[in-house]
Design goal:
- Two copies of one chain form a homodimer.
- Helices cover 43% and strands 16% of the residues of chain A.
- By secondary structure, chain A is an alpha/beta fold.
- The first copy, chain A, has helices at residues 24-34, 51-60, 79-99, 116-137, 160-170, 181-184, 190-199, 232-241, 255-258, 262-276, and strands spanning 12-15, 38-42, 64-73, 103-108, 140-143, 175-180, 203-208, 248-250.
- Chain A has an eight-stranded parallel β-barrel, surrounded by seven helices.
- Chain A has a single domain (12-276), classed as TIM Barrel (Alpha-Beta Barrel).
- In chain A, helix 2 links the parallel strand 2 (38-42) and strand 3.
- Chain A is globular and about 45 Å long.
- In chain A, helix 7 (190-199) runs parallel beside helix 8 (232-241).
- Chain A is built from ten helices and eight strands.
- At the A-B interface, helix 4 of A face helix 4 of B.
Chain lengths: 277, 277
C-alpha cells in the first residue's frame, strides 16, 4: 500500500490541549488564522465560559467542533466515586450538546492495584447507565483505548480489540471508538481491528501525533508528526479503507512544545500534518 | 479464584541482572546462601568465563540453570545486521548448552521507524533459520513479548497473542513463550492467552517483578513484587492452571535497587517472593 499524501487542511482538527498555554479565545482566533478546520475542545478551556457561545464562536470562525474531551473513567473503589463519575459524564454530555460537538471522548479508567477485569466490569456498568442519556442528547460516546503503559491508573482499555468488544456489546449508533495512533501503533492486529471497527460502524475518531524514541516522560513528551516512529500515513490509509472520513485530530501533550512559541508551533503542526500524516 | 500462597523457595529463580553489581561468582555464593533454587544467566556475566565451568559451579551450589538471557533481535535494516544477529544467536545457543540451561530467552527486535509488520516478518525468517540449530543443540527458544512501550526499538512482539501465533506457526517442541508479568499484566486477554499457550505446550518460562505507579524511567525502575500494581499471584495461578510447573524467575531492572546493598536486597526478594507472588 502506498497511501496518498494529504493535499489540504480540510480534515485537520486540533485539540485545545495541544496549545495548552492559550485560552479558548486565543485558540479560536489562531486556529482560524492557521487554516485549521476543526477543534476538539478539552473541558478545561470551558471554565467560566458559556459552551453554547463558544460553540457558536468556533462555527462563526468557519470551524467545526469535533469532540468534547473528555469523559469516561467509570471506575472506583467506592459506589460514591463511581456515582460522581457518572454525574460528571452527564455534565460532559450536556457540554458537548451545548457546543454542538457530535461526541464525547471517553478515557475508561483504571484504579491502582485493582484487577483489570474488575475495572472492565465497572466500565461496562458505567456505559450501560450512561448510554441512554447520551442517546437522548444525540451525543456519541467514543471509547479511546490508551497505551498499555497507562493501564495502572488511567485506562483499563488498552487495545482496539477490547474497545471493539465494548462497542459491539452495546450495539448502539451512539457508542464507538476513537483511534489514537500514539496509543495503538504497536499492535500487530491494528489494521484488522480498525477494519472490524469500521465494519461495525464504530469508527468515530482519529487522533494523531508521534511516538518519540527515548521520551523524557511517559505522559507529556509526545512528538509532532514526523518526530517519531509511527507510520501515521499507513494507519490513516487503514482508517480510510475501513470507511472513516472524519477529521484528523492533532492531540499532542508536550512540555517541550507547550514551552515553545505557540504560533510557530501551529505553523509546524500544519506543515507536519501535510508532510507526515 | 483465591490463589494459594507460596510456602518455600523451591521454585524461586533470580536473573543475574537483578543483582547487576555482583560478578557471577558473588551471585552463585550469595544466591546459594539466600536459599534460591535457580539462576537465569545473563550473557554479560559470562565474559571471560568458561560457561561449562559456571554451569557446574551453579549446579554444585545446589541450584539449577534456568535460562540464558538473551538472544533474539533478528531485525535490521541491512542483511549484514540480520546475519550478525543470527551468528550471535548461535553463540547464545552454544553458551546455553555449555551452561546446561534448557532455554535461551529471545527478545525479538524492532528497528526505529520500521513498520511492525516488517519487523515481524524478519523475526519469522530469523526463527526459521535458527530453530533447527536450537533443536540440534537441545536448547529451547522462549519468545518473550515485551511491553508495548518498547515497540519502538526493542521488540515488535508486544502481546501473548502475537507470541502464541509465532510459537504455533513453527509447532516445534523447542520453541515457546516466556511470560513476564511486567510486560503483559495489562492485557484483558492474558488469562485466555496463557491457557492457549499451555494447551499448545508452549509455556516455557515465568518472569516476575512489579509495575510501580509513576516510574522514574521506562527501563530501569521496575518494582520488587508488592511495590506495584500487578496481581502477580493471580497470574501465577493462571500459569499453573495452564500446566506450568517451572521456575518463578525474579527479573528486576532497577537503578534504585542496584544502588542498594545487594545482600539486603536479596533478603527482600525472598520475603517479597513469599509474600506477594
Amino acid at each position: 500500500m502506498n497511501p496518498r499524501k494529504l493535499e489540504n487542511l480540510d480534515r485537520l482538527a486540533v485539540h485545545t490541549i495541544t496549545t495548552k498555554p492559550w485560552s479558548i479565545e486565543e485558540i479560536i482566533a489562531n486556529y482560524h488564522q492557521a487554516g485549521i478546520s476543526g477543534i476538539s475542545v478539552w473541558r478545561e478551556v470551558l471554565e467560566k465560559r458559556n459552551p453554547v457561545r463558544i460553540g457558536e464562536d468556533i462555527q462563526n470562525a468557519g470551524m467545526e467542533v469535533v469532540s468534547l474531551v473528555r469523559g469516561g473513567f467509570f471506575t472506583g473503589q467506592t459506589d460514591a466515586e463511581i456515582q460522581a463519575s457518572l454525574d460528571d459524564n452527564r455534565r460532559a454530555i450536556d457540554e458537548a450538546a451545548a457546543l454542538n460537538a457530535s461526541m464525547v471522548v471517553l478515557v475508561c479508567g483504571a484504579v491502582p492495584g485493582q484487577a483489570i477485569r474488575r475495572s472492565l466490569a465497572q466500565i461496562e456498568a458505567g456505559l450501560e447507565t450512561l448510554l441512554p442519556y447520551a442517546e437522548k442528547c444525540g451525543v456519541s460516546l467514543a471509547i479511546e483505548p490508551l497505551h498499555p503503559m497507562y493501564a495502572d491508573s488511567r485506562s483499563a482499555i488498552c487495545t482496539m480489540k477490547t474497545a471493539n468488544e465494548f462497542a459491539e456489546k452495546f450495539d448502539s449508533p451512539h457508542l464507538g471508538v476513537a483511534v489514537d495512533v500514539f496509543h495503538l501503533w504497536w499492535d500487530a492486529d491494528i489494521e484488522s481491528e480498525i477494519q472490524r471497527c469500521g465494519d461495525n460502524g464504530n469508527l468515530l475518531a482519529f487522533h494523531i501525533c508521534d511516538w518519540k524514541i527515548g521520551m523524557a516522560d511517559m505522559l507529556n513528551d509526545r512528538g509532532l508528526m514526523g518526530e517519531g516512529v509511527i507510520q501515521i500515513r499507513e494507519i490513516r490509509a487503514w482508517m480510510e479503507a475501513a470507511g472513516f472520513d472524519g477529521f484528523h485530530e492533532v492531540e499532542i501533550f508536550s512540555n517541550r512544545w507547550w514551552n515553545a512559541d505557540q504560533k510557530q508551533f501551529l505553523k509546524q503542526i500544519t506543515a507536519a500534518y501535510l508532510g507526515h500524516s
